[in-house]
Amino acid sequence: MSDCLFCKIIAGEIPSNKIFEDEDVYAFHDIGAQAPHHFLVIPKQHIATINEADDAALIGKLTLTASKIAKEMGFAEEGYRVVMNCNEDGGQTVYHIHLHCLGGRALTWPPG
Ligand code: AMP
Ligand code: ZN
């Protein structure tokens, strides 16, 4: 999608601190990290919100990619959180779905 920030990151039109990519997904560090480790995993296909998603394998791959990276970065055993915000009440600000993965500190619950 031409005016989507995360599509532009995937295309290399906007720089990002890339961690991983394959034919389906792209992972990169969040520019506004809320924890010592905070990265995003996104599908290469533009999907605005999780409400529009219908590919279970692709959505599952976002989570498994996050856990693989958390293990490789060495904070999986201590623990971490994966979360996807949806629409206004969910706090979504970028309308290309992205799984947040946060770790490296004790996270509080519930979120605000
Ligand atoms: P959300 O509020 O769930 O839509 O999350 C959007 C996330 O994208 C926020 O955590 C932002 O810090 C992050 N973000 C926005 N622009 C960029 C960018 N250019 N590079 C990396 N992360 C970004
Ligand atoms: Zn997009």
Automatic annotation (TrEMBL):
* InterPro entries, per the entry: Histidine_triad_HIT, HIT-like, HIT-like_sf
Location of the active site: 98
Q: Matching SUPFAM superfamilies, A to Z? A: HIT-like
A matching Pfam family: HIT
Q: Which Gene3D superfamilies does this one have?
A: HIT-like
Superkingdom? Bacteria
User: What GO molecular function annotation could you give as one example from this UniProt entry?
Assistant: catalytic activity
- Motif span (Histidine triad motif)? 96-100
HIT domain location is: 5-112
Q: What is this protein's name? A: Zinc-binding protein
